[in-house]
Amino acid sequence: MTPSTDRNQELFDRARQLIPGGVNSPVRAFRAVGGTPRFVQRAQGAYFWDANGQRHIDYIGSWGPMILGHGHPAVVEAVQKAVLDGFSYGAPTEREVELAQEIVRLVPSMDMVRLVSSGTEAAMSAIRLARGATGRNKLIKFEGCYHGHADALLVKAGSGLATFGNPTSAGVPAEVVQHTLVLQYNNIAELEEAFAIHGKDIACLMIEPIAGNMNFVRASVPFMRRCRELCTQHGALLVFDEVMTGFRVALGGAQSVYARAIPGFKPDLSVLGKVIGGGMPLAAFGGPRAIMEQLAPLGPVYQAGTLSGNPVATACGLATLKEICKPGFFDGLAASTTTLVEGLRSAASAESIDFCADSEGGMFGFFLLPQLPQNYSQVMKTDGTMFNRLFHGLLDRGVYIAPALYEAGFVSSAHSEADVAETIAAAREVFRALCPLVPEVPHG
Ligand SMILES: *Cc1c(COP(=O)(O)O)cnc(C)c1O
Predict the structure, then answer these.
(1) How many domains are there within the chain?
(2) What confidence category does residue 306 fall into, taking pLDDT thresholds of 50, 70 and 90?
(3) Which atom of ligand 1 is nearest to 244's Cα?
(4) How many CB atoms lie within 10 A of CB 186?
(5) Ligand 1 pocket test: which of 146, 215, 271, 272 has the largest number of ligand atoms within 8 Å of its C-beta?
(6) Within-domain flag for 440
(7) Are 251 and 345 within one domain?
(8) pLDDT score for 444
(9) Residue nearest to atom 6 of ligand 1 (CA)
(10) In-domain check, residue 301
(11) What's the CATH number where 180 sits?
(12) Quick one: pLDDT at residue 331?
């Protein structure tokens, strides 16, 4: 494509004059992988078309929400109908009650739920609630987990367990993160030590149960069991950030997956987003009645939102949940995801490329590593140059995966067997080209 006909490049050049980095969320800028971001013109089913008219099989799906693919007819109809009745009222509606009812029905750890507009807002509010409900300040998070961009969460590990974190963003005062302790994911010894030192001051432990912001890393069952035990023992709240995993890895979220392995398991608070809005700005947090009633207007913890429970967003969310509640939905989704992941694995192994992968429901991750990483520093051992060649190889062949090696991937119910087969065929070609360029020198 000559530069003058590359509409993606033209739009990116214009965007960069007007919007910092040309994008409204940093990962879209392709800075990790290089090259020109694809500007989306339209999307349907498993595909989107970029500004040059090239079709892409979409494995991002708006970073998770599009579990039915793009433009599902039942969802489109619900949204069109809702729009005709008005966009926003700033007063309660029946659909908010219906959506709240659906959420508490599907997620048994939640008696009550509050709707908000973004995952960031939901996670930030859940932490405020946990602090208000416990009367404590300190919070535990894990390196590689992302809970949105609230100040107290933009933090990396301090120099030791006795010290709290350091801001990872300019503009965040050290005082704001002085109560945030950052631990290594899946590290039981470190977790025990942190509770031994700070237990009586810890308001909550927030975790992505299956971390999707360091590619795809599961909390091990023993680690999760210990998180639950230590929170209970020390009076801290266990907060599951299921913004990504909720209604994505299973109908009951990742907590239902852990409850299968740990009888009676449940978190205290849950944070939801992405799929519950079906692509509209909608998120939520919830938990037991006694804790949720600490929120304004009933209790002392303030939280509010002009667009919270927006009538168009709730229509979109409800229509999406209705589809994923249909019998067999998650079995079909998981089968497509497994076929994809297994196909990629055998394509890589045919070329003797280090590769491992994992998936749950409609969420997957793969690594150019010999074995599945357990924490952030192991994820970051992936060869970035090789990942970038893989990314661009797939992109050139019309397969759109996340433009960074620390992001998960998403399959929708619109991805057909043919789409998955096309993806695997593309990957096979790319892996072939990725083969070590220099033949091994024979020993002897
Ligand atoms: C996406 C995400 C968030 C933030 O949600 P936004 O809607 O982008 O603010 C929080 N936590 C997790 C686990 C996420 O994946």
Answers:
(1) 2
(2) very high
(3) 15
(4) 21
(5) 146
(6) no
(7) no
(8) 44
(9) 119
(10) yes
(11) 3.40.640.10
(12) 98
pLDDT tens digits for range 384-401:
999 999 999 999 999 999
Distance between CA 423 and CA 259 in Å, rounded?
33
Q: Which atom of ligand 1 is nearest to the CA of 242?
A: 13
Quick: pLDDT tens for 171-196: 999 999 999 999 999 999 999 999 99
Say which amino acid occupies 261: A
Query: 118 CA distance to ligand 1 centroid (A)?
Result: 7
- Closest by alpha carbon to 333, among 275, 414, 259, 260? 414
Domain that holds residue 344: 3-71+327-434
Q: Which amino acid is at 147?
A: H
In the reported structure, the alpha carbon of residue 147 is separated from the centroid of ligand 1 by a whole-number distance in angstroms of 6
Mean pLDDT of 164-171: 89
With a CB cutoff of 8 Å and minimum separation 6, the contacts of 233 are 195, 199
CA–CA dist 405, 91 (Å, integer): 43
What is the model's pTM? 0.96
CA of 320 to the centre of ligand 1 (A): 18
Q: Both tokens of residue 441?
A: 């020198």
Residues 381 and 279 in one domain: no
Residue with token string 């950052």: 182
Q: Which of 206, 290, 218, 268 has the alpha carbon at shortest distance from 243?
A: 206
Q: Which residues are catalytic?
A: 146, 241, 274
Distance 346 CA to ligand 1 centre (A): 32
Confidence bin at 165 (pLDDT 50/70/90): confident
Asked which of 324, 358, 388 is the last residue of a domain, the reply is 324
Out of 303, 324, 345, a domain closes at 324
Residue 143 DSSP code: T
Same domain membership, residue 416 and residue 351: yes
Distance between CA atoms of residues 138 and 203, nearest Å: 5
Q: Which residues line ligand 1 (CB under 6 A)?
A: 118-120, 123, 146-148, 208, 212-213, 241, 243-244, 273, 283
Distance from C-alpha of 172 to C-alpha of 168, rounded to nearest angstrom: 8
- Whether residue 388 lies inside any domain: the answer is yes
Residue 300 confidence (pLDDT) above 80: yes
In the predicted model, what is the mean pLDDT of the chain? 95
The residue whose CB lies within 8 Å of the most ligand 1 atoms, and thus the one to mutate among 117, 125, 151, 213, is 213
74-93 pLDDT, tens digit per residue, is 999 999 999 999 999 999 99
Q: What is the CATH number of the domain that holds 396?
A: 3.90.1150.10
Q: Token digits for 107?
A: 């997620």
Answer yes or no: is 443 within a domain: no
